[in-house]
Amino acid sequence: MNTLEITVLIGAGAFLAGLLGSLTGLGGGVVIVPLLTLVFGIDFRYAVGASLVSVIATSSGAAVAYVREGFTNVRLGMLLEVATTVGALVGAGLAGWITPSALAVVFGLVLLGSAWFSAQPRPEHVVETPDPLATRLHLDGTYPSLQGEKHYHVQRVPLGFGIMAGAGALSGMLGIGSGALKVLAMDQAMCLPFKVSTTTSNFMIGVTAAASAGIYLARGYVDPGLAMPVVLGVLAGATLGARLLTTTRSAMLRMIFAVVVAVLGVEMIINGLHGRI
Amino acid sequence: MASTAGSEPGLPPTARPGWDDDRIERLLARLLQVGVLLSTLLVLAGGVVFLLHHGGTIPEYSRFAGEPAELSSVAGIIRSALRGDGRGLIQLGLLVLVATPVLRVAGSLVAFVALRDRTYVVLTSVVLLLLASSLAAVVF
């Protein structure tokens, strides 16, 4: 295949990934690397570099819509960003030392985890009692709901901070947004309402990815010819996805995507173990 | 429109009015939008030039060779973009993209300074320094 043909095909694949990622709420970034490495046989490092910049594009692109809704907890986001950026720098540093085959196995495990996570029921725990540390850091807030303004109290700040450091490390190592892990830390560990955790996570994803992007660029992981169709495709797909479905997410679509993610995870692990990546 | 965290009178006394009132937040989000748009245009323009010149070649994406200095440092990228090189233009667009969240953090820092919220001035500065340390790798 020549450059024009492969660019068109990658652009189409990235578009589909962005569309499905936004429709299902899983994020498209997580399937970009498997798509590029398994389907197109692209080097893992180039794949990770292209994926990472596409993550920034979707995060920054979605910010306007999220701010309009008024759920983002900027203080909490900023506090946790200390953890994610440190994690991202460490992760991106480690990525230079770990072989692509080993990283592919880690990637596969993360994909399996994401698929499993998306199939789990996630109860919303909004807690009535304030937490002393969260209170001291002014992390509590309100969010608009059908019944008017609702208060929420942030819980277990250290645990959330720790999970975020891990999410940042994975993001820096694998070129993904780690959105699933960020949301898990916020709505399950820190007891934030869903709307607040999703939008705050989006706010953080771009900053986390920007932390490793400098290192990736300097190392030559970001190939312009490859990143171009990936960024444009994912951005177009995610934008269309956001237009198509803003309130309800199809459970069926979500399940199909989770299965695809799981299959890709198994493939990544097998290929990594055989040293084919 | 929807009010944001900390801006309601009924809050516990510990919660201060947030800096993140609608106007600042929207301004920052608008900044991100402009950044993404500018970046998209540069990547698109660069992509067209790149494909016109290299569309018929066989790409070498399966073997990692890294990028030359002119595509992995800020000075090199700007030089090749000014030359009208397709790959340089795309890379410049990607640099703009990477800069958007950094600008947003810088905007938050200004807002926290204006509010004299010391804790968050410190935390935001730490985040900004960490981002700068990563971007320093591309600048130097």
Give a structural overview:
The complex is a heterodimer of chains A (277) and B (140). Chain A has 277 residues and is mainly alpha-helical. Chain A has one domain (3-273). Chain A contains 11 helices and 2 strands. Chain A has a two-stranded antiparallel sheet with strand order 1-2. In chain A, β1 and β2 (148-152) form a beta hairpin. In chain A, α8 runs antiparallel to α9 (194-219). Chain A is globular and about 60 Å long. By secondary structure, chain B is an all-alpha fold. Chain B has one domain (22-55, 67-139). Helices cover 67% and strands 0% of the residues of chain B. Chain B contains 4 helices and no strands. In chain B, α1 (22-54) packs antiparallel against α3 (86-115), α2 crosses α3 (86-115) and α3 (86-115) runs antiparallel to α4 (118-139). Chain B is elongated. The N and C termini of chain B lie far apart (44 Å). The model of chain B is unreliable at 1-20 (pLDDT under 50). Chains A and B meet through α1, α3, α4, β1 and α9 of A and α1, α3 and α4 of B.
List keywords for this structure.
heterodimer; A: 277 residues; two-stranded antiparallel ribbon; 2 strands; B: 140 residues; mainly alpha; 4 helices; 67% helix; 0% strand; elongated; disordered N terminus
Find the count of extended strands of chain B (DSSP E, 2+ residues).
0
Across the major sheet of chain A, the strand order is 1-2
Q: How many domain modules of chain B?
A: 1
Give the averaged pLDDT of chain B, no decimals.
83
Instruction: Report the order of strands and helices of chain B.
Output: HHHH
Give the number of domains of chain A. 1
Instruction: List the uncertain runs of chain B.
Output: 1-20
